[in-house]
Amino acid sequence: MVEAEPAAVPAPAARPRWRRPVAALGALLVLGAAGWGINGWRVWEGGVTTDDAFIEARVAPVSAKVRGTVIAVLVRDNEEVREGAVLVRLDPRDAEVQLAQARAAVAVARGRLAAAESGVPMTDEATRSQVARAEAAVQAARVGIEVAQRALDERIGHLRARRAAVEAAAAEVEARQAAWEQAARDRARVVQLAERQLVAQQEVDRAEAAFTTARAALEAARRRLDVAAGEVAQAEAEVASRAAALAQARHRLAEAEAELAAARSRRGEVAVRRADVAAAEAQLAEALADLREAELGLEYTTIRAPISGRVTKKTVEVGQVVQPGQPLLALVNLDEVWVVANYKETQLTHVRPGQPATVLVDTYPGLRLRARVESIQGGTGARFSLLPPENASGNFVKVVQRIPVKLVLEPGQEGRRLLVPGMSVVPTIHVR
To answer: What is the pLDDT of residues 40-80, one digit of tens each?
Structure first.
C-alpha cells in the first residue's frame, strides 16, 4: 500500500495595500454608528440634549447716582459681599454744603409760613370787627333817620296847627275890629243924640260900655294873634331844626354805609393773606423737597451693595471722579443661577414646562445637576437679535432655528455655587 504524500501548503499571498484605509473608514463608520446609536438611545429613552447652553445669573450693576470724587474703595475683585455692605465712598463735603443750604432754606420757608399764618387771623378778626362796627353804625343811623323824620313830621303838624291858630286869631281880630268900629259908631250916634237930649243917660252909658267892651275884646284878639304868630315862628324854627337833624342823620347814614363798604372791601385782604399762606406752604414744600434731595445726595455718597453677590467688573479706583450713571462694578448673585439652553426647534416637540432635566458642566466633568424646565421663550433667538433675518426677498435657505429654554436648578445640590455665568453646560430634558 502506497501512502499518499501530503500536499504542499501554498505560501500566503501578500495583503493588498488598499485594505488599510478601508479598515480605518470602517472603524469611523462603527464609531459613528455607535454615536448615532447612543443619541438614538437618548431620544428613545425620552431625552433631548444640546451643547448650546450656558449658565446665567442675576447681575446687578452698581453705578454712581451723584457726581463726586472717590475717596475709598472697600471691596476687591471677586470678593463676596452682603446686601447693604458699603462698596465705595465719595467725598461728602459738597453734599454736606448742599444739605446745610437746604436746611437753612427750610428754616426760612417755615418762618415765612408762620408769619403769613399769623397775619390771617389778625386781619380776619380786625376786618370782622370793623364790619360789625360799621353795620351797627349803619343801623343806628337808620334809626336816627326814622326818629328825626318822625320828629320833623310832628313839628310840621304842630306848625300847621299854629298857622291855623293864627288864621283863626286874625279872623277874630277882624271880627273884633268890626265890632269895635260898630260900637264906636253907636257911641258917637248916642252921644250926639244925648247932646240934643234925645236919649236918656242910660243909653249913653250903655253905648259907652259896649264901646269899651268891644275895644277890650279887640285888644285881646290882637294879643292872641300876636301869641299865635309867635308860636308859628317858633314852630317854623322847630321844623327847620328837625329838618337839619334829619339831614344830619342822613349824612351819618351815608358815612356809615361808606365805612361799611370799606370794611367789607377789606375782606379781600383776608383772601390775600390766605393766598400768602398758600404760597408760603408751597415754598416750604419746595424747600422740604430740596432738603430731601440734599439728604439723598449725601446718602448717595456712600454706595452700598443692592444685593448679596460676588464683585465683578470693578473699574472704580480712589481719586477717580465719577458721574451719575457711571458703572463702577457689578455684583453677581451666585445663589440664583439657571441654564439657558438653545434647543433646535425640532427638539422641542415634546418639551413642556415642569419636565425634569439633567445638566452636565464642561468645567466639572463629574458634576451632574438636577434641573427642571421653567419656561420656553416666546420666539426664536434670531427673531430677537439686533438684525432679525428678513426672508421676504431673494433666495431662501431654510435653517433650523433655535429657541431658548430656561432650566432652573433644584435647590440644595452640592456644587451649585461652583457655577458662574457664561459656563458651558450640556443639559438633557427628560420628556418621557
So the answer is: 434 435 699 999 999 999 999 999 999 999 999 999 999 99
Q: Are residues 105 and 81 in the same domain?
A: no
| Cα of 351 vs its chain's centroid, Å | 52
Query: For residue 277, is pLDDT > 90?
Result: no
In a shared domain, residues 269 and 136: yes
Query: Do 332 and 184 lie in a common domain?
Result: no
Amino acid letter for position 155: R
Residue 420 lies in a domain: yes
- Which of 235, 260, 275 is the last residue before a domain boundary? 275
Tracing cell 504542499 back to the chain, one arrives at 8
Return the amino acid letter for 232. Answer: V
Instruction: Please tell me whether residues 271 and 148 are part of one structural domain.
Output: yes
**b/e map of 204-237 (b: 16 or more CB within 10 Å)?**
beebeebbeebeebbeebbebbeebbebbeebee
3-class SS of residue 350: coil
Cα distances (Å, whole numbers) of residue 384 to 272, 285, 403 = 61, 46, 11
> Would you say residue 290 lies in a domain?
no
